[in-house]
Amino acid sequence: MGISMGDWFSRRWSQLSLNQVNFYTIVFILFFTVIFASLLIYDEYKDFLKMAQNGVEITQIIPLSSSLPYQNLPKTRLIKVMVEIATLALILFGFIVGLSKIVNSMIARDMERFLKFFESAHEKADPILLDELYFNEFKKMAGYANEMGSTIYEQKESLRALNASLEERVKQKTKALQMKNEALEEEQKFSQGLLESHKQFIRYAIHETHTPLSVIMANIELFAMNEGRNRYLAKIEAAVKNVFSIYDDLSYLVKKDQIEYPKKEMDLGEYVEKRIEFFDEVAHFSNLSFEYEKPEFPAWVVFNETKLQRVIDNNLTNAIKYTKSGEKIRVGVSSSIEECHFWVQSRSQKIHDVEKIFQAYYRERKKTDGFGLGLSLVKSICDEEGVKILIDSNVEHTRFEYLFNKKGNI
Q: Which of 68, 101, 119 is the last residue of a domain?
């Protein structure tokens, strides 16, 4: 797209310097002076031609006292007039040029003072003295410029003071943060030491607990074989089995990050039936009973036995804790083409917050025994192994159902 003539002149004009304007002004004055002188000379020449053609007496335009020859008088007169006009034009041109130069030099001097002021404005600029300027308009501008420069300098000094203050504050804050970080590192080391000591203590406690629990269980069996069972022995056995379940939970929590739990193929229905037999005495002691629904066909799953025991035992013991007295705890296992289902259902109080019951140390019944770790442990195992959890709880019953993939979480 072409550029219009007006745009071209506007762009050229915006790029002109003061010296260029001065030069173009002189050229312009010279041009019009030459035109003006030429027009005057041309008019004078036309007048002479006109008088000559009309027969005007030479004596009327040239004095009789002239010593020039008669035939050269008109030509001489014309030359004289031309010289006078040219001389006058040159004098006028010189006067105008000189005046223009003086005015332009005065403007240039004032402008130079402004340029120096603005060039040094980023530092402490010396104010423009009004007596140094020639024109009132520039003096007004100088007043505004001096005020602006003073304001800029004050703001700059204020910013310098503020930056210095901020730098000092940053240094102080940094030093304080470094001290806090050092204190936190010391506290973290101390806390890690306490945590490691705590873990070590739990390991030793669990290790030392296993032997006496095994001895107690063995002696209960021997006593029952020799003397027969009674209600006191049943209470002891139920309590020891509860302790065994808690021991197994703690043992898994301590070891789960340190050892690898291999998987194997297991019959879920048969394994659940064995765990029901283990907790049958505990349920009977709480005036409860199990009702087990066996699968029609073997429900094979690929799972680690320790993890599977934690899932099943925690659900059975929770059912014993929360089921209403005199009720039955229904337990079942079923199998489909891709999944095996394990579920526990009983009559108990409605669970108000299904999501929170999987949080560690959370218990909806504050008076119930336990630490609130069982379902949290179950949830972590199910998440690791891809086992789906379904919960249905209302005023009539509470049901926990677990969906195991037959191929395992590969």
A: 119
